[in-house]
């Protein structure tokens, strides 16, 4: 993962910051909608502009609100983004012209040590000409005129950024996702208000994500790169992914919430290990099992954590009840790790990360051919495959075709008639004897491709 200069995009709500962010990173990472205030946490992505590579930060719209309110907490995130950036793009809406909030943001930015580039968005056509002239009065020189939606003016943006970050040089760490030293991609999922953002803030030791009593604060899936020092004092790299809370489908009505849930599901696809965070004060609900099942169907390694354990009532009974419900509700995978944590106090977080790394190791494991063959022979000898209709099912050999998740193919004759119960027996035996634990294991059955290769016995 290369170290890159950082560019923050700031401005009042709904001027097009997320649209420019998506344009720069080349994909729709940030949610975009007509209503203001869609972005709440600051989101990062890697951008490239005419060969100029940098890290870009999309921020929440800057609003003049009490610091203890949700907009006030969003504003603190924007201020933190500017402080850590090498340059900030101050965006105004050329069609709407300069408004008092733009002037307030300009006064704040003039007191910052971060270089500022003024950007007039929505400047295509004659409707933005007056707004561009008004922007000159903000004191940051001639604005870069562009249309984030249509991609116009990006060459001018490149020319403005080049003198500031064009000479940046940093070593490329050259990550290989399959390497044990590669960052652990760890997604935190769960129902709204389970404490996902609070957990990540506790991990990294700063208020990086907005938290509060309001359910559904997080809308985008936010990735944060972080280094965790384990109990042996070994630094381990982690990419933490916070996601929007996932409610029952019937309760998801608003367009924006549907986009947020879809974004959370994409984050699961991106992750290696997924932590399903449960609220210990509410226990396990059917929605939690649906989320867990979705994670396993996607082939991701799953860890379940009971949060708010510091305030849980009748803890022993609660833990045993949740464990039994998981065994019944996730019958396809037995023994999914169940841990107790407190995002508020930090209890159990090191154990959670250790378990996540161990789970990724099992999820990425490739079994040596000799060990795989010996297991195969033992499994068939211990419980031979059935003979439906009196005809034998002959299983010839097995091979591992993939990892992450571990995937195997068994070749033989009449394997299409193998009962699902026997497939479960083989998968459970693999998990138990080959060290896969509770990670998803995929098993495919194939008959010989040669039509003359028949079992004559």
UniProtKB/TrEMBL annotation:
<dbReference type="InterPro" id="IPR032859">
    <property type="entry name" value="KH_dom-like"/>
</dbReference>
<dbReference type="GO" id="GO:0042254">
    <property type="term" value="P:ribosome biogenesis"/>
</dbReference>
<feature type="binding site">
    <location>
        <begin position="11"/>
        <end position="18"/>
    </location>
    <ligand>
        <name>GTP 1</name>
    </ligand>
</feature>
<comment type="subunit">
    <text>Associates with the 50S ribosomal subunit.</text>
</comment>
<dbReference type="InterPro" id="IPR003593">
    <property type="entry name" value="AAA+_ATPase"/>
</dbReference>
<comment type="similarity">
    <text>Belongs to the TRAFAC class TrmE-Era-EngA-EngB-Septin-like GTPase superfamily. EngA (Der) GTPase family.</text>
</comment>
<feature type="binding site">
    <location>
        <begin position="242"/>
        <end position="246"/>
    </location>
    <ligand>
        <name>GTP 2</name>
    </ligand>
</feature>
<feature type="binding site">
    <location>
        <begin position="307"/>
        <end position="310"/>
    </location>
    <ligand>
        <name>GTP 2</name>
    </ligand>
</feature>
<dbReference type="InterPro" id="IPR006073">
    <property type="entry name" value="GTP-bd"/>
</dbReference>
<dbReference type="InterPro" id="IPR005225">
    <property type="entry name" value="Small_GTP-bd"/>
</dbReference>
<protein>
    <recommendedName>
        <fullName>GTPase Der</fullName>
    </recommendedName>
</protein>
<dbReference type="InterPro" id="IPR015946">
    <property type="entry name" value="KH_dom-like_a/b"/>
</dbReference>
<keyword id="KW-0690">Ribosome biogenesis</keyword>
<comment type="function">
    <text>GTPase that plays an essential role in the late steps of ribosome biogenesis.</text>
</comment>
<feature type="domain" description="EngA-type G">
    <location>
        <begin position="184"/>
        <end position="364"/>
    </location>
</feature>
<keyword id="KW-0677">Repeat</keyword>
<dbReference type="Pfam" id="PF01926">
    <property type="entry name" value="MMR_HSR1"/>
</dbReference>
<keyword id="KW-0547">Nucleotide-binding</keyword>
<feature type="binding site">
    <location>
        <begin position="58"/>
        <end position="62"/>
    </location>
    <ligand>
        <name>GTP 1</name>
    </ligand>
</feature>
<dbReference type="InterPro" id="IPR027417">
    <property type="entry name" value="P-loop_NTPase"/>
</dbReference>
<keyword id="KW-0342">GTP-binding</keyword>
<feature type="binding site">
    <location>
        <begin position="190"/>
        <end position="197"/>
    </location>
    <ligand>
        <name>GTP 2</name>
    </ligand>
</feature>
<dbReference type="InterPro" id="IPR031166">
    <property type="entry name" value="G_ENGA"/>
</dbReference>
<dbReference type="Pfam" id="PF14714">
    <property type="entry name" value="KH_dom-like"/>
</dbReference>
<dbReference type="GO" id="GO:0005525">
    <property type="term" value="F:GTP binding"/>
</dbReference>
<feature type="domain" description="EngA-type G">
    <location>
        <begin position="5"/>
        <end position="169"/>
    </location>
</feature>
<dbReference type="InterPro" id="IPR016484">
    <property type="entry name" value="GTPase_Der"/>
</dbReference>
<feature type="binding site">
    <location>
        <begin position="121"/>
        <end position="124"/>
    </location>
    <ligand>
        <name>GTP 1</name>
    </ligand>
</feature>
């Amino acid at each position: 993962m290369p170290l890159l200069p950082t560019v923050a995009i700031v401005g009042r709500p709904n001027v097009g910051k997320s649209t420019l962010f998506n344009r720069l990173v080349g994909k729709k990472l940030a949610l975009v909608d007509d209503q203001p205030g869609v972005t709440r946490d600051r989101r990062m992505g890697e951008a490239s502009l005419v060969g100029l590579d940098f890290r870009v930060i999309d921020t929440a719209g800057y609003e003049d609100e009490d610091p203890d309110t949700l907009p006030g907490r969003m504003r603190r995130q924007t201020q933190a983004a500017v402080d850590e950036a090498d340059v900030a793009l101050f965006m105004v809406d050329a069609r709407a012209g300069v408004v008092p909030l733009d002037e307030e943001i300009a006064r704040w930015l003039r007191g910052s040590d971060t270089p500022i580039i003024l950007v007039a968005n929505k400047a295509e056509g004659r409707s933005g000409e007056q707004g561009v002239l008004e922007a000159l009065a903000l004191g940051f020189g001639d604005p870069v005129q562009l249309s984030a939606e249509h991609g116009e003016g990006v060459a001018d943006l490149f020319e403005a950024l080049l003198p500031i970050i064009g000479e940046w040089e940093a070593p490329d760490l050259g990550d290989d996702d399959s390497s044990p030293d590669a960052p652990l991609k760890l997604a935190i999922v769960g129902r709204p208000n389970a404490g996902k953002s609070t957990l990540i803030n506790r991990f990294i030791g700063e208020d990086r994500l907005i938290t509060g009593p309001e359910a559904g604060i997080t809308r985008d899936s936010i990735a944060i790169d972080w280094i965790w020092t384990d109990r042996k004092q070994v630094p381990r790299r982690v990419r933490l992914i916070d996601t929007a809370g996932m409610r029952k489908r019937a309760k998801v009505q608003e367009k924006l919430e549907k986009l947020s849930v879809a974004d959370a599901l994409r984050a699961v696809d991106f992750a290696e290990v997924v932590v399903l965070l449960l609220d210990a004060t509410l226990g396990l609900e059917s929605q939690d099992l649906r989320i867990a099942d979705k994670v396993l169907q996607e082939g991701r390694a799953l860890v379940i954590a009971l949060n708010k354990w510091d305030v849980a009532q009748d803890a022993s009974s609660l833990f045993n009840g949740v464990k039994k419900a998981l065994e019944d509700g996730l019958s396809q995978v037995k023994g999914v790790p169940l841990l107790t944590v407190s995002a508020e106090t930090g209890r159990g977080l090191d154990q959670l990360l250790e378990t996540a790394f161990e789970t990724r190791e099992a999820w990425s494991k490739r079994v040596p051919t000799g060990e795989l063959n010996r297991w195969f022979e033992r499994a068939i000898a211990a419980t031979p495959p059935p003979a439906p209709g009196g005809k034998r099912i002959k299983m010839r050999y097995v091979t591992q075709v993939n990892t992450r998740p571990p995937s195997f193919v068994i070749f033989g004759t009449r394997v299409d008639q193998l009962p699902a119960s026997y497939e479960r027996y083989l998968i459970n035996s693999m998990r138990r004897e080959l060290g896969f634990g509770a990670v998803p294991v995929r098993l495919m059955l194939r008959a010989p491709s040669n039509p003359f290769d028949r079992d004559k016995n």
